[in-house]
Amino acid sequence: MRIRSLGVIDDAVVELSPGFTAVTGETGAGKTMVVTSLGLLLGGRADPALVRIGAKNAVVEGRIRVPADASAVVRAEEAGAELDDGALLISRTVSAEGRSRAHLGGRSVPVGLLGELSEDLVAVHGQTDQQGLLKPARQRQALDRYAGDAVAVPLAKYAAAYRRLRAVSAELDEITTRARERAQEADLLRFGLDEIAAVEPRPGEDVELSAEAERLGHAEALASAATAAHGALAGNPEDPEGVDAGMLVGGAQRALDAVRSHDPALAGLAERLGEIGILLADVAGELAGYADDLDADPLRLAAVEERRAALTQLTRKYGKDGGAGDIAAVLAWAETSAARLTELDGDDERIGELTAERDALRGELAGLAQALTDARAEAAERFAAAVTEELASLAMPHARVTIAIGQTEDPAGIEVGGRTVAYTSTGVDEVELLLAPHPGAPPRPIAKGASGGELSRVMLAVEVVFAGSDPVPTYLFDEVDAGVGGKAAVEVGRRLARLARSAQVVVVTHLPQVAAFADRQLLVEKTNDGSVTRSGVKVLEGEDRIRELSRMLAGQEDSETARAHAEELLAAARVEG
């Protein structure tokens, strides 16, 4: 990694080796910034307070070598990133104003993507994680992850049934709690449908009745006009000497017929006059029939107006836009409302179906919860045995760790094993890590049953066991050995060295007994002005490493006793390795 303008670090390069790397230095020298830098590369929260005073931004760049078939590589390539000789290049920039940018394989990416990749790349175990592991919920998560597929498979089945039960229960609650509202809605729909059914409107009826009312309301004027028009076209039978349009057109046609053979053009005009005469006769006949058929019945007019009033009342209530519609809109409302009423009337049947499904799901969930509990119980025995074995190597040979798996009774829960217990999306189990520090001591929660030094060793044992179950290539331990010393510290170093045989391990430590087991030791040191420069993070070898271990042992680099002890530690670590 290259770190610039982050905390006390001005510009420094951190080269981590395969195996076990120890990062040491005086308090306040900036060792924690190494952990913070890695956290930023892995998508951690960007705090503008981390930016070095006077700098515009802090920058962390990293190169992480990953197997070509790793899921992190697949996800990175999907985001457009490119590998550089089998390695992912990651950079993170944090401005003093709080803005944050991330780049992966030469492409700008969301910071969240780095967090996704980190799950497959690095497992961070630090003092914050220790405190988190004191919480039962975190202990359950740790146990589940340790168990792997043995718990993951039944947990996935349980979670699917849990989600379905929640959905069914929510729908059932919605129907039952809104029963009164739905009943009121159904009553209103029935009233409207009954009112429409009583009138029995037909499509287009309102338009037809409007035309009929207009005709009946002006029947006398229409009859008088039709009669006058008929007389003008066909003449008045009571006035034999009267002149009408038909007679005039007939006379014009006869005049042309006498000479039509002499000019085709005139013959054509004669033909057209003949057609006009025929048309006049047809119109005159229809006018006569119209006048005879026209009914000026006031009773019919009253009936039409009454029907129109009934239809108007329907359109005002059930037409579109508060009565701006027509009978077509009323009929559409009736169709939609009938479908909705069918749905509402089916509530009782739906309630029965949902109740049956809910009860079946609760039974299924109870069975899945029991299977999940059994899987956790089996994994808990293995996990506790592994942690107990680790504690024996950490100068706690008589300590015994157990994991208690219990449930909380809840009348509204599900029945598991003859008890009605509370259930969540992760099952019915409450997991708690217990410690009996010596024979005869009752097991107690680790937060209450261990002293400070014992707690650090217990948590380190948990971290080592848990880390061994993580399918990631790199583990970072940030001073999880705090509170440990003497022989126990030597055992801490030995256990971390063994873990490093199968993975890359990075440890930030104050303990020389731990640092002596490292394959590479990095020293973080400040310059006179209080900053850490590029040369401030250096690999310690030979005499330099002995001097740093002496400082860590006695606070004095030139102490002959400390030097002898440092050389002894290194020699013992090499033999162990």
Automatic annotation (TrEMBL):
Gene3D superfamilies membership: P-loop containing nucleotide triphosphate hydrolases (3.40.50.300)
GO biological process, one term: SOS response
Domain RecF/RecN/SMC N-terminal, chain residue ranges per copy: 12-530
CDD domains listed in its UniProt record: ABC_RecN (cd03241)
Gene Ontology CC terms, in alphabetical order: bacterial nucleoid
The entry's keywords: ATP-binding, Coiled coil, DNA damage, DNA repair, Nucleotide-binding
Superkingdom field: Bacteria
Residue stretches in coiled coil: 351-378
Classification via InterPro entries: DNA_recomb/repair_RecN (IPR004604), P-loop_NTPase (IPR027417), RecF/RecN/SMC_N (IPR003395)
Primary role: May be involved in recombinational repair of damaged DNA.
Entry protein name: DNA repair protein RecN
Species annotation: Streptomyces indicus
